[in-house]
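Let us practice reading a record.
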Amino acid sequence: MTATSPRLDLPTLIAETEAEILRLVVDRDPTTHGLYEMVRYHLGLDGTGAPAGKRMRPLLGLLAYASITGEYRAALPGAAAVELGHNFSLVHDDIEDRDRERRHRPTLWTLHGIPQAINAGDTLFSLSRIALHRLTDLGFSDARVLRLMRLYDETCLALCEGQYIDIYTSEHDLTMSVELYFDMIGRKTAALIAASIEAGAILATEDNEVIRRYRAFGWALGLAFQLNDDLLGIWGQEQATGKEPTDLAKHKKTLPVIYAFEHAGAVDRSRLESLYRAADPTVDEVSEVVSILERVGARDYTRDEARRYRDEALGELDAAGVVEPAARERLEQIIVAVISA
């Protein structure tokens, strides 16, 4: 297979993953039509042409599988499971964070209320588990499918743990250290990306050293992705990211802010504390926070860390030693597209 093979064309991979998802997100009967309508709406698969997200996690899993085997279709149920699982967490995150918009559209809870949005999120979780069972129908051994299910369950638990840390520290106004922040994003972000890639490797090979390398690749990539997102949340452009850079207005303590609190001088730290106590900061106050972050080197530190983890990820991928060239090219294409730091 050459590097230009249409079989690894990213839009095609996305389309086939979405088709696999739609095999599951079907109306069971007229009584529950509204439930699956909510699910399709959140996924951007309601036929309106609304933005549906990058589908980065399933793409990574499919390409990990293809980079070892040279093809991807057998791994589609696993990719669907990853995307459904990711979206169940997003529905719940929107409720917990009181976010009213996602991908330029109202979030589920603002349209249908919190109880039904929670139920739709739970439905996405259940469908993600059902997706994994189709791997058995495609001929994968029970042992391999069970290993994948264990990975999936451990990853979902890590997501919940990371969300707990995030909510608890916010509600109790606790100072989060840089070390604790990396622990939190490891659970909330890196765990799912690492699992997506590890799942592709588990389906493709029984070589545990190769699987370990692929997981390490995904873990480093997940950290780089989150740090890049932290940068975009303060310095990004809405047109490019699909959301306003409002992390400071919402008092989110992402890595640049945490770093600044740890490294700023007494005067800057005192001013940061005062600005973060403002219930509804003005544009000028947000701009002042940005100036402080830049002055203490928080932007440069975060960018350097994102690049370091990005390069570490690529190093782990190459160290696996089994990467098919076309899949390697597509993986790097995704990394460059989503990590712009």
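A brief commentary: The first strand starts at residue 101 and ends at 102.
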